[in-house]
Amino acid sequence: MELFLGIDVGTSAARGVITGIDGKVLADAHFPHTVSMPHPGWVEQDADEIWWKDLLEIVTALLKTPGINAADIKAIGISTICPCVLPVDKTGIPLRPGILYGIDSRAGAEIKQLEEKIGKENIFKMTGQYLSSQSCCPKILWIKNNEPEVYEKTHCFLTGQGYLVYKLTGNFTLDIYDGMAYAPLFDLYNRRWDSTYQAEITEISKLPGLIWTTDVAGKVTAEAEKITGLKAGTPVICGTADALSEAVSVGLHKDGDMMMMYGSSNFYIMRTEKLLPQENSWASYFVTPGVEHLLAGGMTSAGNLFKWLRETFPGRDFPQWEALSAESKAGAGGLTLLPYFAGERTPINNPNAKGNLFGITLRSGAGDVYRAFQEALGYGVRHNIETLKDNGVEAKRIFAIGSIAKSNQLLQIISDICGCPQLVAKEKAGACYGDAFMAALGAGFISDISEIKKWVTYEKEIIPCNEHRDLYNEGFERYKALYKALEPFM
Q1: E-state strands within 209-335
Q2: Which residues pair with 8 in a beta bridge?
Q3: Is residue 302 a contact partner of residue 225, using CB atoms and an 8 Å limit?
Q4: Element (H, E) at 400
Q5: Fewest beta carbons within 10 Å, which of 76, 342, 410, 486?
Q6: 454: nearest Cα among 12, 9, 19
Q7: Residue range 96-122, pLDDT digits in tens
């Protein structure tokens, strides 16, 4: 039997699946976890107590499934929230909790420091992007500036999947796709580290080896076999960020395909014919060697907006909030929300951006407020899609995935605002499903990325309704104008 293991560690939960060579899910396990926010703007997770513990729990649960034997697992793929910054010593022991992706905005001063020393245009020239709260190098510099004892002990700065791959194989690796997060130390055009600005950030020797996502990073060690129950010698691919695995899991495989991931944050990935560095998105490479390119970007806050609202104003569950929203109308009773509750990534790239609810009157009700949150997500997605169009790149197919994609109401609002249909895949395993496919691809059991179309089918397509087109066009213009007017105060 040929089985493939995929594991994904997300912001609020981890999930793993074992599939057959035909893509059928034979075992599935899911475990929730938390994030730590020790200071305003800081978002962290403990690499051992969350990432590694999750992996161990998932593997244990999956291997208990009747008919599943570790010896039949032919390859392993791993993804995690990314980019993250985890410093480890020369024995691979974490020196502090991992600093998470764009939702952690601690390094604003370091972004400014690097821009002043190096120059924004020099940074863009090297990596095809500007610095943001998503960037790793400012966070590495933050450690250097604020935790010098940690920095001095650091042997390597890893991502989440890099740490889990290390724990299984003993090798320090990073996939080329995620290299884009290391501006300006990553040479986008030659796909390698560049030492030009290492004095301003960190020595290149402290960075992991760059390989392709589907390259085999190593094999499960005898020590890892004792701890996990996985068989020593099982190939482990390099792995990648959860967003890229999500994109693969929904069938993204040709130019013009766009994945729109709705999780705690929002993230998109779109395949492009050429490498197209742009100011308001991130250019990089797809999962395998060759002429595969992409643009990526997304909003810092998506699902966490609704989580914040429900926790801050308790007493209603999700269905009750949606019922109130249904009683409101398109336009949210005149309310407009800026959803920048943790800064913003693309297209405005402002870690200091703040949320704002505009237009409140004595007639505004709870349903209007919730509807304004829903529409804000739609406006944020539209802002990214239209920025891409302005730069000559248009999505031909949009695949929606993530927890928010379970809400037909919210997906419909987003499609109506953007004027874009959205396909929703039948298989809901998400990134770990993409990991299993890429493990099979990397280990040579599948020959080409296009074979993902044999694994994926779609359960629904959300078609935009034009009834409120003019209202949403007006709302979108107000959304952009509000940010422009309030930005000086942020």
Answers
A1: 209-211, 216-219, 235-237, 240-241, 257-262, 266-272, 282-285, 293-297
A2: 15, 79
A3: no
A4: strand 397-401
A5: 486
A6: 19
A7: 999 999 889 899 999 999 999 999 999
